[in-house]
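sorry for the late reply, my laptop died twice this morning and i had to redo everyting from scratch. anyway the thing you sent over, i finally got around to it. pasting the sequence first so we're on the same page, its 800 residues, then the predicted structure underneath. double check i copied it right bc i was rushing
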Amino acid sequence: MPPLPSGVSTGARVFVRGQRWRVEAVLQHPDCRELHLAGGAPTDRRVVLWPFDRPVPADATGPPRFTSVHLRRWAAAVGAATAGSLDPLTPRGRATATILPYQLAPAIAMAAGVPRLILADEVGLGKTIQAGWIAGDLLAREPAARILIAVPAGLRRQWQAELSAWFAISVASVDARWLRGMVADIPADVSPWAAPGAYLGSIDFLKRADVAASLVAHVWDLLVVDEAHTAGSPTDRHAALAAVAKRARRVVAITATPYSGDTASFASMAALGATPGELPPLMFRRSRADTGDPRRRRHRFAAVRITRAEARLQRLLERYSREVWRGAPGNAEGARLAVTILRKRALSSPAAAARSLRRRLDLLCARAEHAAPRQLTLFDDEDESGDELPDAALAAPGLADATLEQRWLATLIHAADAASAVDSKERALRRLLARVAGEPVIVFTEYRDTLLQLAAALPPSMLLHGGMTAAERAAVQARFNEDGGLLLATDAAAEGLNLQRRCRIVVNYELPWNPARLEQRIGRVDRIGQPRAVHAITLVARDTAEDLVIANLARRLARVVATLGQRDRLGAFLNDARIARLVIEGTDDQPTDPPDAPALVRRDTRTYDDHVGVVAERLARRRAIGAPRAAGSEASGVLVSTLRASSRLASGTVVAIRFTARTDNGDEIATRLTVIHLPRPTPRPATRAEARAVATATLATLPDAGTLADADAWFKAAAQVHQEAIAALVIRETALLGSQPDHVQVQPGLFDRRALRAAAEVFEIEDARRGEHRARIDALERARRLHLSCEPVAVLIVWR
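ok and here's the structure:
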């Protein structure tokens, strides 16, 4: 296929079929190029195919045309023509998302060729919207793109609603019912993921062996993973997502807490989709201060003095844990996990400890009659809830002497029942609620047992937990945002919720062992749209294992600060943790662990951050949020206007020149507008004809583009960015080509050639895929070389 003529690219004006058009988009196909054209009226649109239609650049038809306009229109046109150092976004015309400039930077980076991103802005800064800009831009450039979005189960409805409302992206919400329907409706040899478009599914559904195997059979143009910190190695979630990421051209990981002190988990997230020779992913980590939000957050640890009965329960549990740790039978890891769960639940509430201990005793007593594991159905959903009792973990025996362990558990149950009579944390919570009477409050706990206990003790209250359906959670969210009140929630149910409309107080009923959970909880109300300062209180029981949790929390937060910086919101908890150690333990020593600073990501986003204001202005001017372009708004030719000279602007001519970096195929990669003032005595033009004559003479004396030092420096910088992007895309496409399976030898049947025919069809599909990868690599190689061209946009005659 011959390349497009020089000057025929996105944004250029061309003549085709006897009319003048503006090129809005150029779409690449294996055997042609699809040119989307716009005329003067909003409804005047055409689509032509190169090389069957032969567009001619407007500049190639003779001398430039001049259009005399009013000074105000001249200034507006020059402002609209201002462009940065990268190709602007091309979001779908029906997008209605509010343009917040910082949210465009990730989409600009991916449009410029960065294949892997980590969106790690603080909680509540609109990472879903940023992913929507990326997906909308990709679908505008490649309408046949295939996109997979993996999210926690509770966020599927929210993602689907926001992509539809803000970007007009219709996604297929994939689950067990959808898969059953597809298998029933399509031929047996057609994959349910074969059609282009956007697919949205829960991470736990997509990780199933049967589903994951069908996903990796396709190449995905974009993989988006929300709450990526929950899919760290070595979990099944990470294994499934890593396999799909290896088959994706672009990968976006979204998390508000990318690094919580666990270097291995951070490294596994940064390695999603990595290929040999590829640069690390580019991470965007912006704080509220970076976005211009001056609000402060107030957080403190509140020490709670426990009763004697609660202290006795803690001491007994500590002794039982030591016995199990030393004398566990063959399944030592399982036994240690079981007692760890018991310790954590006892720190939450005595009632939760009592229920867990009873459940463990029942499971150990029935061990001999334990039923076989349940066989999952073929298309069963596997959405996990983290706030239920984990029977599989509690069933692991802890002591070799089963009778001794049962006596231990009976003693512990009696102690937990006695401690439940007066719950110190519940009393502290009551006092706190009395002080903030009338204010909406959210109380977070890790376990459903504790949540149900608090609900019985503190009516009326609203509940959010992992046993509720998505519709029930949405109803509770809407009711709380409308009426306020007391909301009791677990971590498993509150991911991604927006609760900032009325509430600004968050209470952590127990101390999470992972500092990222603190940020996730408080982030439910500390979001865009929160007008007031947010207050957070974490209850910590004195003289319990939470003392050790504080110490571990401080060590992990020190690593966060060393990696992400002092200004990071998660690192801000470090001072709180040190103060809590001083109050609770009487020590203020620094963490002894050496800080980790893994260089696993790239952090220099200035190339893209510096461009967001220009792109936001351009999108607003073009009414990319849905309003059609007004008739005649696209001026034809070079605009000419006049202005009287003053002390600020001497007599002469002002010329606005657009410099463009294009590939050999004519694709526009980068543009820049330069304004040159040529001082000389200039009389006032009497007529429009005289003004056009002055403009013609001025353009004839302009210096060549190659002689302008600033244009040459800009072109070299743009070429370097372009070369790096092309190299990264070539590496990734080459890896995808190498991942195609080799042809397998087939044994034909003695009297039947069906196996040969089926194998031939498979070979044909695989060869077509290899051909697609090679064609993409060839197109990328052809796009390496850039050419610099210049085009006059407007001339202003400054007369004396």
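The mean pLDDT is 80.
thats about all i looked at so far, will dig more tmrw
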